[in-house]
């Protein structure tokens, strides 16, 4: 450290004149002074690690909470599978309302939308002019010979004006599509020219349609002008050609005739949706069975989430006798309490089912290390008594908690730990408060240490200067004494 003398303007270095190692002395003194700060920093590091551990614990409890949800929902035990002997013709999907059984499905006709098209060779391309006036579209059903039209209940006439700037084939197509009348329009172009094709946007006999025309040329049903787009066989006539009639699906299920406006049979059988793709030459068998693999998957997920939490708690509270080292949360009251609660919920019997009163009775067995193992054979046997297994896992009894199924039992416990006033948020908040307090203490102590170091350096620099002057005076005296005449020395 260099110092400037205010009296002489000379530069000196601390310790040079006196031999006093000011830097070393101050450094060693400050090492002692910094010990409280070092302890605070070590505590802060431990608190951060503990906070991280509690964050991991909270995540594992949340995973267990998620894994319990399917176990206390009765619908989870009503899941089913549907298999078909000819899925390319008939397939099926199920909901929890589906009843297991065998269903014989025959399809004699598939649903279809109505489709009509203008004659070949009438228009060269989409820019060809058709005529002005208006088109009126109405959804409904036709009888077999198309001599009568019945408007669809709830539908209305949709009138589409066609002006001079939009009377081309392409322009009329766009106007129809913009009208949202339940009819779509496309242009079909080939070597013979362009044709306008109209099709119902939904299949089914009730979604057929007619097209009536108000032609600005005054004649509304002839083969000229806008009238060329009329289709009303029961009324003014049809200039467009029928390409496909609107039709319903015709099928039988277990010999019972059913119809549908689409190729999907919904709600014909509770909880089952049959999807029809082809007309069948022989009945297709759809077998609906209870999906026990899904139920097993729910239980396996619970076991996995439980084991993950159990393993974390065991590791976090372990004491290694060989190294004499305690794990981070060994002796932590909150962690130990959670670990004890987790283990305590496994053994007590539940009143939810008279057949399966314990987890082990359904094949969920406790291991020596406190983990769980799902025994496939025992669980398969339990599934054969599905109503009782459902009770054992999913029963909810608000008045008698002891009658909760095991799924609800663990869910209530996890909910309590994770609630805003629960043990985990409370502990996390307490640790965070200690971290904040520690940071403030470190900041205050750091400021104090800076002041102490400044004072020490000033004190020892002053001492160095004083000692340097004393040394110089001593040397001067010695020199004067040495140069005196011998008579003066005597």
Features:
490 residues; alpha+beta; 4 domains; elongated; disordered N terminus
Protein model, in words:
The protein has 10 helices and 24 strands. Strands 3-20-5-16-17 form a 5-stranded antiparallel β-sheet, with no helix packed on it. Strands 10-11-6-15 form a 4-stranded antiparallel β-sheet, with helices on one face. Strands 7, 8, 9 and 12 form a 4-stranded antiparallel β-sheet that branches. The protein has 4 domains: 2-33 and 425-489, no CATH class; 46-75 and 293-418, no CATH class; 80-111 and 249-290, no CATH class; 115-244, no CATH class. The longest helix has 61 residues, at 423-483. It has helices at 22-33, 35-68, 169-179, 292-316, 333-344, 376-383, 386-394, 406-418, 423-483, 486-489; strands spanning 2-4, 11-13, 80-84, 90-94, 101-109, 115-117, 133-142, 149-151, 158-162, 183-190, 193-200, 208-215, 231-232, 237-238, 241-244, 249-253, 256-260, 264-269, 272-276, 284-290, 319-320, 325-326, 364-366, 372-374. The protein has 490 residues and is an alpha+beta fold. It is elongated, with a radius of gyration of 46 Å.
Give average pLDDT, whole number: 90
Terminal Cα separation, in Å? 45 Å
Multimeric status of the protein: single chain
Q: How much helicity do the residues have?
A: 25-40%
- Unreliable stretches, pLDDT < 50, 5 or more residues? 1-13
Secondary-structure content class: alpha+beta
Give the overall silhouette. elongated
What Rg do the Cα atoms give? 46 Å
> How many domains, in number, for the residues?
4
Percentage beta strand:
15-25%
Count of individual helical segments: 10
The count of DSSP E runs of length 2 or more, i.e. the number of strands, is 24
Adjacency order of strands in the biggest sheet: 3-20-5-16-17
């Amino acid at each position: 450290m260099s110092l400037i003398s205010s009296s002489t303007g000379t530069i000196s270095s601390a310790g040079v004149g006196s031999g006093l190692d000011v830097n070393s002395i101050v450094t060693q003194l400050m090492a002692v002074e910094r010990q409280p700060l070092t302890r605070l920093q070590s505590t802060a590091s431990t608190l951060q690690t503990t906070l991280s551990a509690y964050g991991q614990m909270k995540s594992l409890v949340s995973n267990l909470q998620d894994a319990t949800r399917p176990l206390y929902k009765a619908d989870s035990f009503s899941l089913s599978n549907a298999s078909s002997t000819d899925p390319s013709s008939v397939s099926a999907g199920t909901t929890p309302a589906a009843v297991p059984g065998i269903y014989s499905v025959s399809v004699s006709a598939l649903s279809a939308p109505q489709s009509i098209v203008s004659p070949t060779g009438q228009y060269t391309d989409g820019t060809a002019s058709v005529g002005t006036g208006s088109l009126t579209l109405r959804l409904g059903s036709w009888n077999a010979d198309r001599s009568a039209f019945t408007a669809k209940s709830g539908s209305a006439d949709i009138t589409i004006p066609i002006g001079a700037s939009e009377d081309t084939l392409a322009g009329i197509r766009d106007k129809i599509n913009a009208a949202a009348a339940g009819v779509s329009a496309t242009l079909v172009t080939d070597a013979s020219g362009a044709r306008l094709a109209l099709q119902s946007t939904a299949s089914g006999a009730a979604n057929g349609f007619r097209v009536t025309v108000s032609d600005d040329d005054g004649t509304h049903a002839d083969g000229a002008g806008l009238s060329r787009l009329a289709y009303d066989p029961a009324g003014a006539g049809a200039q467009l050609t029928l390409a496909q009639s609107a039709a319903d699906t015709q099928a039988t299920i277990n010999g019972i005739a059913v119809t549908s406006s689409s190729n999907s049979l919904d709600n014909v059988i509770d909880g089952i949706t049959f999807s029809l793709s082809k007309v069948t030459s022989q009945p297709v068998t759809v077998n609906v069975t209870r999906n026990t693999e899904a139920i097993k998957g729910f239980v396996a997920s619970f076991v996995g989430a439980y084991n993950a939490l159990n393993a974390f708690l065991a590791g976090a509270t372990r004491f290694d006798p060989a190294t004499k080292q305690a794990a981070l949360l060994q002796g932590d009251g909150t962690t130990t309490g959670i670990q004890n609660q987790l283990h305590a919920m496994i053994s007590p019997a539940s009143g939810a089912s008279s057949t399966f009163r314990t987890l082990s009775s359904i094949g969920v067995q406790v291991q020596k290390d406190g983990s769980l193992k799902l025994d496939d054979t025992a669980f398969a046997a339990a599934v054969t008594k599905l109503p009782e297994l459902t009770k054992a896992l999913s029963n909810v009894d608000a008045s008698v908690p002891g009658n909760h199924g095991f799924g609800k039992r663990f869910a209530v416990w996890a909910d309590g730990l994770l609630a805003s006033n629960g043990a985990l948020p409370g502990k996390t908040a307490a640790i965070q408060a200690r971290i904040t307090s520690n940071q403030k203490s470190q900041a205050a102590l750091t400021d104090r240490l800076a002041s102490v170091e400044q004072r020490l350096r000033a004190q020892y620099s002053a001492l160095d200067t004083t000692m340097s002057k004393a040394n110089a005076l001593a040397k001067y005296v010695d020199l004067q004494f040495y140069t005196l005449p011998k008579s003066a020395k005597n």
